[in-house]
Specification:
The structure is a single chain. The protein is an alpha+beta fold. The protein is built from 24 helices and 8 strands. The strands form 2 sheets. A 5-stranded antiparallel beta sheet has the order 7-6-5-4-8. Strand 5 and strand 6 form a beta hairpin. The chain is globular and about 85 Å long.
């Protein structure tokens, strides 16, 4: 019988062991069983822990953690230290949600987005008895592909078998944007990628065999996959994406993850930051659209390397030297980190629809799962600003700025950007805030790699806010003059950020298009600008005169 667990956010002591531990203890002169302490287990998580124990999960299993990846919070207990944290309980359940669906639904309150079935079942037997048509489809492909590989001489226990099975499921779920290409051409381009992995069998024959299968919507095409439409403006779960046949890289990855998990291949969600992919045309395009976009794919870890499967881009990558890998930066996510990222994406969708209160609540869920998620912290800040909750927004931004120096994965100081633009908004009513805006925006540019590209984005962020400020300060100027004065303001910000050549070009262009006396007032009233930029401006003006 399990000892009584006290509920609450307190440190708990519990002596518990498995039957094997009990037998071992009795055979070694009644050696004491390990004692476990609990950190930050609130009542809901304490009941979740109790539920896992009642179903036979030992404290040792939970203590070891559910993922070989590092916990997202550095101050958490480590695996094997006989301390059980909230992170370990949640992560264990996320990794084993197939086995404990009721507990998972009870803890998280909704279906996990990467599952091909729902948790609204009473028992494990009912889950297996009432599989959705999508899961049955996946299982049929898994069985067919496995049988084909075994017939080709692969051992089911070998890594090559697992790689090939993963690639077969990749074909089912990969993006079908290659319109106009024949099936043979598509097969040919994919074969070239697979051959680099050194799998020694006739891949083209395998794919043609798979083409005889029927996908859920009746298309007689394995290579065209599930034929989802892309470019979504909202986040869908795996099941929703399959039902609506729509999704982008995140939805494709959820579907592929569900299939790989059913095949027992232990997949991971992989996160890519477009700003770290320097030479890739795809990410260059993403960077030009919005600096906040990210890319999601799926990976499987083998002893010698990562197999990265990117269904959104129809790419297969075999990475033997990570980290680092030239031109390719990626981060495997724990299940908690991915769930937090998915909630963050949902919050963005709510914000786009103007549902700011719902967006803020969803961001809060994401941050509770992964407190080091800087993009969620700056996202909730934007939502709070848009909702008029200015002071709350500044508190969230301060948290992000405090975390930034120690965060090695996320390289962008978005919080400085957002706080700077918030100060610009305040400067309309309180001109003294412009100094704070200049300071934060300058700090942001200093910390950003790929600055030449990012500066263009900065101009787009500053301009609308700065123009409102300038119009309030110089109501006698027309719209064209305000626009020119705004370009001078941005040029001066570039100088402060350490890009004097860019600033000089902007200042020269301003003076060549005609003088505006208010420019001197803008420079002199702002002690945020250095004497160097003022001196350069006045020297150019004197030479011109």
């Amino acid at each position: 019988m399990l000892p009584l667990i006290l509920l609450g956010s307190i440190t708990l002591g519990l002596s518990a062991c498995s039957k094997e531990d009990e037998d071992s203890a009795s055979s070694t002169n009644n050696q004491k069983t390990p004692e476990y302490t609990f950190e930050k287990l609130d009542p809901k998580l304490a009941w979740t822990y109790l539920g896992l124990r009642l179903q036979g999960v030992s404290p040792q299993e939970i203590d070891q953690g559910a993922s070989p990846l590092p916990a997202p919070q550095k101050d958490l207990p480590q695996a094997g230290d006989q301390v059980i944290s909230a992170y370990e309980v949640e992560e264990y359940l996320l990794r084993h949600a197939n086995t404990y669906p009721r507990l998972a639904f009870s803890l998280f309150g909704e279906d996990l987005p990467w599952k091909s079935w729902t948790f609204l079942k009473k028992t494990k037997e009912e889950v297996l008895a009432k599989e959705t048509s999508y899961e049955l489809t996946f299982r049929k492909h898994i069985q067919k592909t496995s049988a084909f590989l075994i017939n080709q001489g692969f051992s089911p226990e070998s890594d090559d078998f697992k790689k090939a099975l993963a690639i077969g499921l990749f074909f089912l779920t990969s993006n079908s944007r290659s319109e106009g290409k024949s099936i043979e051409d598509q097969i040919g381009s994919l074969v070239k990628q697979i051959q680099a992995l050194g799998l020694n069998f006739d891949l083209a024959k395998w794919v043609r065999e798979a083409l005889k299968s029927k996908t859920p919507n009746g298309e007689e095409s394995f290579i065209k996959g599930l034929r989802l439409e892309s470019d979504l403006d909202q986040e869908l779960s795996c099941v929703e994406a399959l039902q609506q046949l729509t999704g982008d890289c995140t939805e494709y990855s959820k579907i592929l993850f569900a299939a790989l998990e059913l095949a027992g291949l232990e997949p991971y969600f992989i996160f890519q930051d477009p700003w770290q992919q320097e030479d890739d045309p795809f990410f260059r395009k993403v960077r030009s659209q919005n600096y906040a976009y990210t890319h999601m794919l799926v990976g499987i870890r083998f002893k010698e390397a990562w197999l990265l499967l990117d269904p959104g881009r129809r790419k297969i990558i075999w990475v033997k030297d990570h980290p680092p890998h030239p031109g390719l930066s990626f981060s495997p996510l724990s299940m908690q980190e991915y769930l937090a990222k998915d909630l963050e994406n949902q919050a963005v969708s709510f914000a786009k629809k103007g549902q700011l209160d719902q967006s803020i609540l969803t961001y809060q869920k994401a941050i509770s799962l992964d407190p080091n998620n800087l993009s969620a912290l700056y996202g909730i800040s934007i939502a709070k600003l848009d909702a008029g909750k200015i002071q709350e927004a500044f508190q969230s931004l301060e948290q992000a700025i405090q975390k930034y120096p120690t965060n090695k994965q996320y390289v962008f100081p978005h919080a400085y950007f957002i706080r700077g633009t918030a100060y610009l908004r305040q400067a309309i009513e309180d001109p003294s805030k412009l100094k704070d805006a200049v300071k934060d925006l300058t700090e942001a540019i200093k910390k950003v790699p790929h600055a030449d590209t990012y500066l263009i984005a900065l101009g787009g962020i500053i301009s609308p806010n700065a123009q409102r400020y300038l119009m309030s300060q110089f109501p006698n100027l027309n719209q064209q003059e305000i626009g020119r004065l705004n370009s001078l303001l941005i040029a001066c910000l570039y100088w402060e950020a350490g890009y004097p050549e860019l600033a000089k070009t902007g200042i020269l262009s301003f003076l060549q298009s005609g003088d505006i006396p208010e420019a001197a007032l803008l420079l002199e009233d702002q002690d945020g600008f250095s004497e160097e930029v003022k001196k350069y401006y006045y020297e150019l003006q004197q030479n011109k005169n």
